[in-house]
């Protein structure tokens, strides 16, 4: 079945009908993005939110020193965009680009609002999406007070699928630590696994 | 008019009828909380989200050294609680308590879901609340890479009403900086105002 059909049903209490889904789908625009191509550039208004069918994307902003700071990472079945700019209509302070070649479904704010009124399953999905997104960002805010080790551990537990899709410097930036610190954390973790493999009797 | 009535209308595209509002209100439980009284304690499941009619509250977690880390601050017309625990039903890692004597309206997750189905205005309010909450947490994540000065500046711009409701050590914790750093930022800001008052001709 269509990934968006599966996604809506996952978060809706009732199965969406074929007719309703066709209506939902007709509100989206299909687009391909080549690696490094922007969905959104700093200073633009985020006109579209993207449901990712294929590929990986990232949202980041440039700090005062011109360093890229990762804000969000996304893979298939995730939504990418800048919610503030999308909702309020203000220019975005973020960039969203394709980390891999992507296929996405784009929706405007107006179309999304119309569907939330006309399609109960889509509305439920939107509510759950808001909740899930809030939960995820809340976790990130909380993790700021964690050590680098604990931060990485939580990241791997929550998002194991990110580990092989993004390189270390992107993950380090997402976690708000330096690449060297992440390197140390990973070395320490590898050592720990080696010791665990040897077993307590052998030490 | 009732604060919750005004709140729903603020975020709904159509005015809620008196009848619908009475139905909404009947799903809430009124409660008074004395200063320092908990709405939620670490380890409990968050059964209720609270709409604050009066007073100020805070959400925090205890770090590994037993230090309180502010996660959210709330005043009148804000919602307090732990969304993850409320939605997923898992024990909370947060404490939510009254910073001032409070009056709140409590709602369960089931009642909220029922109202989202039965009352279009309440549903719209919920969607907007999810958006606003996401926007706010997104801003906080972004601000992590800011200097202490810029972090405080954004805080005052976005939440001027928090400045007189919470003491410096609570605001410092919310911003993820030490009390001494905040003190320095404030001194610097005061000096700047003094220089601005003197005017460029006098220097």
UniProtKB/TrEMBL annotation, chains A, B:
Organism whose genome encodes this protein: Pedobacter psychrodurus
Domain Cyclic nucleotide-binding: start-end pairs: 30-115
Protein name listed in UniProt: Crp/Fnr family transcriptional regulator
Source taxonomy: Bacteria, Pseudomonadati, Bacteroidota, Sphingobacteriia, Sphingobacteriales
